[in-house]
Design brief:
Elements lengths: L1 E8 L4 H15 L3 E8 L7 E3 L8 H15 L7 H12 L1 H9 L22 E4 L12 H7 L2 E4 L40 H13 L3 E5 L2 H8 L7 E4 L14 H8 L6 E7 L9 H14 L3 E7 L4 H4 L4 E4 L5 H10 L2 E4 L8 H8 L4 E4 L4 H5 L5 E4 L4 H12 L2 H15 L4 H19 L2
Parallel strand pairs: 1-2, 1-4, 2-3, 4-5, 5-6, 6-7, 8-9, 8-11, 9-10, 11-12, 12-13
Length: 439
């Protein structure tokens, strides 16, 4: 098969990483595999960057070049990518007007030339996250008439008038409007959410789409929305089980230079503006634990944690690690992994932690309960309940037999999410889609 995937970039975490993993897996299986992205960061010849049309004015073109330099820079200061998006928006009148009116920005004409980038036509197009300011959603009707299109839901943006997750709001079911939080990512300036929702409904009605999601929760949301499709398929995200697998806690700590004679709690800090990851609940839970847990080290992987946590003297920051093997060692070195979220379709870090044999304390929201299958691999806690997170974490840290039982069950749960299984399920579905399209 000749498979084209579409994603925001060819490296990163979450949806970007999943698309990249599938792109490589298909190629290793002997299929022709291409990846079209809004931002190309690698030198892979099978990755194509979607063209960006030049702005109509000199000032606009200067802004676009500045934005490109910000994105390509190896040393990007905090907020530089947000600034680059702002420059790109200011450079093009249509994008400025849409933003001022509260309309979602679909003015990316380069994405309509998607098929012209490839050396030959693909058999099928698999689209991942489309709200990364690079894709014209209005091109889906024509694209799906020419080639079968799979839309891989990563969140609920395709179902709403602007936000990536509707959380407690039910407006997405009936048409949005009267939005309770316009700033919620991807934010809009004015409440045109009803018009945005209607515009998406019209685009979908003119398209022939195949919908997939990593959790039954998200797939059920799609079926209850205006996103009518030819078919719907549940295919959970996979991870590389050759990397994320159980191993010696002592050896992992030795490789990382971590102490052997203490408990370790691992967590990932989110942006303070990311309401979906609920950083405030995470901060409260870690502070509670730091005040009560003796002989315990708290490791924050990735983004630097807030100063309020660093000042406790119990929290150590581990900068972003590009090597998955090093990330896996951090899971193995930990006694428990904490994951807070107010909205989550599928927790990649939850799966990775489980696969490494580390119990998880996570919020009972979205698709996360499906990953647990039961609570024997850790504990699920109520939404936004820092006290419950701290109490469940303490329970694991203070009860060795419990922690060991949960570690074994976590490893069994994680072993069910292999990248090979995910790729094979998609390939089987692709073959079915192509066979049906010829009848």
């Amino acid at each position: 098969m000749k498979i084209l995937q579409v994603s925001t970039a060819d490296s990163g975490g979450g949806a970007e990483g999943s698309a990249q993993n599938l792109f490589r897996a298909y190629r290793e299986c002997g299929h022709t595999s291409w990846l079209a992205v809004g931002e190309k960061r690698s030198e892979d010849p099978d990755v194509f960057e979607l063209p960006k049309d030049a702005a109509p004015t000199v000032v606009g073109r200067i802004l676009q070049k500045t934005a490109a330099r910000l994105r390509k820079s190896r040393r990007t200061p905090p907020g530089s990518r947000r600034l680059a998006r702002a420059f790109d928006t200011l450079a093009v009148p249509e994008r400025r007007q849409a933003r001022a009116a509260g309309r979602e920005d679909f003015h990316f004409p380069g994405s309509r030339r998607l098929l012209g980038l490839l050396p030959e036509p693909p058999d099928l197009i698999h689209c991942h996250n489309l709200h990364g300011w690079y894709f014209d959603l209005g091109g889906l009707p024509e694209l799906s008439r020419r080639t079968p299109v799979v839309l891989n839901l990563r969140d609920t943006w395709l179902l709403t008038g602007h936000c990536a997750y509707f959380m407690e709001c039910e407006g997405w079911r009936t048409g949005c409007g009267g939005c309770p939080d316009l700033a919620r990512y991807p934010g809009v300036k004015r409440d045109a959410t009803a018009a945005n929702w209607q515009r998406k409904e019209e685009i979908f009605a003119q398209s022939r789409l195949h919908i997939t999601a990593p959790s039954q929760w998200l797939l059920d949301c799609a079926k209850s929305s205006m996103l009518e499709a030819t078919d719907y398929r549940l295919i959970p995200n996979g991870i590389d089980l050759n990397v994320f697998r159980p191993g010696s806690r002592e050896e992992a700590r030795q490789r990382l230079g971590l102490p052997q004679d203490c408990r370790i709690v691992l967590f990932v800090a989110a942006s303070p503006h990311n309401v979906y990851k609920d950083p405030q609940t995470m901060i409260q839970a870690i502070r509670m634990l730091a005040e009560t847990e003796d002989n315990t080290l708290f490791l924050c992987l990735g983004r630097k944690p807030p100063n309020a946590l660093l000042r406790t003297g119990r929290v150590r920051h581990v900068p972003f690690q590009s090597d998955p093997a090093v990330v896996a060692d951090h899971y193995r070195a930990a006694d428990v992994f904490i994951h807070t979220a107010r909205a989550e379709a599928f927790g990649k870090t939850v799966t990775e932690s489980m696969a490494c044999g580390t119990p998880v304390v996570a919020t009972d929201v979205g698709g996360i309960p499906e990953q647990f299958a039961n609570e024997e691999a850790g504990f699920l806690t109520p939404l936004g309940d820092a006290e419950a997170i701290a109490a469940r974490t303490h329970q694991i840290l203070s009860d060795d037999p419990l922690r060991e039982r949960q570690a074994r069950q976590a490893a069994r749960n994680g072993a069910g999410y292999s990248l090979e299984t995910q790729a094979n399920r998609f390939l089987e579905w692709y073959a079915q889609i192509l066979a049906e399209s010829k009848t």
